[in-house]
């Protein structure tokens, strides 16, 4: 196993990409803390992990709240005495349009808080504990849209670009403490993230099949398991000399020139 006796916090780990990472880490010997606001889904994920014979814990946490993040981290330390891995996965977007004229100041603030401020708060709370052990793996979830937006979602893509800035800065700041900080940039992955765009469509299956064939060189959209494999690499000692990197997990994007008309 690649993560024996490790302890990981995964924000937004109740479903989607976060759940895929949580299950993958558990399979590799890791105890997993799910920090999320979706209680029903989180408890289901915790139950799956328990059935696999690993210890898991759900902590309800709004990662845009400094107080809740601090309380969550303190609870993890009381339970496990350490934090080896932090996966800043929580994020999303609620609007179905992101053209600059259509984005309100309130939507801008809400989106940056969820996708960027949350990662700052979680790193700020966890890093002192990693420094004390002189060990840590931080994995920040960005997006291919941070550097190659397929469409305009200015608030979301700006936040995800900021994630790359946090990653590079912390990689330099924490390297001497044996703390690796890297980012993953997923391409299109079939999760609930797409619900605002697909909820009115007659067939989600047809939408994702068409999206993959038109936009992705590998001719399909990704799965949470696709992202989980890369997260496992970055969380394990396989990547012990890798820090400050941004890894595309996107089926060949953004090298591909879009066929959009």
Walk me through the structure.
This protein is an alpha/beta fold and 261 residues long. The chain has two domains: 7-187 and 224-249, Rossmann fold (3-Layer(aba) Sandwich), CATH 3.40.50; 194-221, no CATH class. It has eight helices and seven strands. It has a seven-stranded parallel beta sheet with strand order 3-2-1-4-5-6-7, with helices on both faces. Helix 1 packs across helix 8 and helix 4 packs parallel to helix 5. The longest helix is centred in the middle third of the chain and has 29 residues, at 105-133. The termini are far apart.
Provide key terms for this protein.
single chain, 261 residues, alpha/beta, Rossmann fold, seven-stranded parallel sheet, 8 helices, 45% helix, globular
Which runs of at least 5 residues are low in confidence (pLDDT < 50)? none
* DSSP E strands, number: 7
Structural class label: alpha/beta
The percentage of residues in β strands lies in 5-15%
Q: So what's the overall shape?
A: globular
CATH topology of the largest domain: Rossmann fold
How many helices? The count is 8
CATH superfamily of the largest domain: NAD(P)-binding Rossmann-like Domain
Can you write the helix and strand succession as a string?
EHEHEHEHEHEHHHE
Strand order of the largest sheet: 3-2-1-4-5-6-7
Helix content: 40-55%
Mean pLDDT across all amino acids: 93
